[in-house]
Design brief:
The chain is mainly beta. It has strands at about 20-25, 30-35, 50-65, 70, 75-80, 85-100.
């Protein structure tokens, strides 16, 4: 067993508009925290891995080519590998617990 300290906790990004911090990495999954400040821009590209987001703080809209939805604390979002997606209209500092399967970037 392992306790993943800080996973999903808001931390103010540095000079970049967003901040990704991977807290656990195994071949079949990785866990990290993605933070975007209120009014910030989400510049991510589609990933080669399936992904689950859990909103731990903040409010925003998640947009894919087929759908948009407002999300806030407690929302759980599944994004399949390769699907374009982006958080927009970030009205409150957004903190996301992110789980990738397999591990982020492993399908390069």
């Amino acid at each position: 067993m392992e306790i993943i300290e800080g996973a999903g906790a808001w931390t103010r990004p540095g000079d970049d508009a967003t901040d990704w911090n991977e807290q656990l990495r195994r071949p079949d999954l990785s866990v990290g925290t993605y933070c975007i400040p209120a009014g910030g821009k989400d510049t991510q590209s589609p990933h080669t891995e399936d992904e689950i987001y859990v909103v731990t703080a903040g409010r925003a809209t998640i947009t894919t080519p087929d759908r948009s939805a407002e999300v806030g604390p407690g929302a759980v979002i599944f994004v399949p590998a390769g699907e374009e997606h982006r958080f927009t209209d970030i009205t409150e500092d957004l903190a996301l617990l992110v789980v990738f399967g397999p591990a982020y970037g492993s399908r390069g």
